[in-house]
Amino acid sequence: MASAAETTGESVAETVARLARAGREAQRALAAMSSEARAGALRHAATALRDAETTVLAANAEDCAAGAANGLSSAMLDRLRLDPARLAAIADAIAAIAELPDPVGEIIDRRQRPNGLVLERVRIPVGLIGIVYESRPNVTADAAALCVRAGNAALLRGGSEAARSNRAIHAALVEGLVAGGVPADAVQLVPTQDRAAVGAMLQAAGLIDMIVPRGGKGLVARVQAEARVPVLAHLEGINHTYIHAAADPAKARAIVLNAKMRRPGVCGATETLLVDATYPDPHGLLEPLLEAGCELRGDARARAIDPRILPAGANDWDSEYLDAVLSVAVVDGLDQALAHIAAHGSQHTEAIVTEDADAAERFLREVDSAIVMHNASTQFADGGEFGLGAEIGIATGRLHARGPVALEGLTTYKWLVRGAGQIRP
User: Fold this and answer.
1) C-alpha torsion angle, residues 54, 55, 57, 59 (rounded to 10)
2) Which of 25, 109, 148, 245 could form a disulfide with 276, with the two C-beta atoms 3.0–4.6 Å apart?
3) pTM for this structure?
4) CB atoms < 10 A from the CB of 90, how many?
5) CATH superfamily for domain 4-234+397-417
């Protein structure tokens, strides 16, 4: 694809600044629309995406062919690949977002001061949100829909692996949104794959109000290191599933297999399995993983369970594989499991499998991650599964939003103060 400079004479930074200014103007108009009008526009967008199935899938097939030729891993190709069912699910997610309660205008709290002043904190849109992402084309639709529903404009910069898919999805979305009365510039796609575009977005303080990165460790680390714009991000999903001594073996086998192998390339996949030394059936836990083609890398005690387990290196405990690879460690009880997670986790998602209610409650209370689960697969770490419609990402920081970030996480607030002529003494 030609660069912005080749097609318009602009530098990449000038292109990003122009798009950002147009997005801010469109956001003011979008925020002035009624909640029902924004919801109606999203319904139009979902319909337009369904109608564009042939075009979108053809574009995606080109991206997948190019990715395979360029050596993308099977897990990365799975993240990239669309089919009629996946595309229908993306359209359904847009329609579902349209039906979600609108957080904009919600009164967070209200109080009256002794002098009669009435104070309210009210949710408002963040403004123009920049989303930088890699190989998952569904992010184009999810991010755009969530931003529009919460009254935000979106400036999207997808990865080169999905460039054709992103353009086709974006074109369909804009067609539907405009039919519903939303300004076309409310959802823009940066028209270049030049890496300088990411840098320009990160430096656009005063134009872009928040950056949300969706991608691998390299991308997110760059965003966090270079950004002069507030960032809402998680660096990695180094997620753990701990099989407690009191785990039900049937539950444990099903949960572990799903947590790793349902879709190994998603950020909610388990990357390290912790097995209690007194768990009664460790071989039965690991056999289904090996049969499914998962490569296991373990410590000495884990390798004693099955000779097919490879030795784990020091870096394995701190690796987000996003592939059919799993680290396995044997631990002496809950305290050691908690210590391992604290030392190696990324504060994304952790799970315990146990029938011991006290152990489960202690795990839920003491693990310091954005999502902590009991007797459930870590693959449920997803905004849609949380009833949020979709997510723009999973935040692992401590400020503004944590866990799956959906509509509420895309708002801030302002204070409204109503008086009757009070003056301050």
Assistant:
1) 160
2) 245
3) 0.83
4) 23
5) Aldehyde Dehydrogenase; Chain A, domain 1 (3.40.605.10)
Distance of CA 396 to the CA centre of its chain: 10
- pLDDT (tens digit, 9 = 90+) per residue, 212-233? 998 777 888 899 899 999 998 7
| C-alpha closest to that of 220 among 309, 159, 145, 165 | 159
Q: What is the pLDDT of residue 8?
A: 62
Contact (CB, 8 A) for 98 and 43: yes
Structure tokens at 375: 């007797």
CATH 3.40.309.10 for domain 239-380: yes
DSSP code, position 275: E
Q: Which of 48, 44, 57 is nearest to 87 (CA)?
A: 57
Helix or strand (DSSP H, E) at 202: helix 196-202
Spell out the alpha helix ranges (H) of 52-83.
Answer: 53-69, 74-80
Between the alpha carbon of residue 334 and those of residues 254, 338, 354, the distances in Å are 21, 6, 11
Q: Where in the chain is the domain with CATH 3.40.605.10?
A: 4-234+397-417
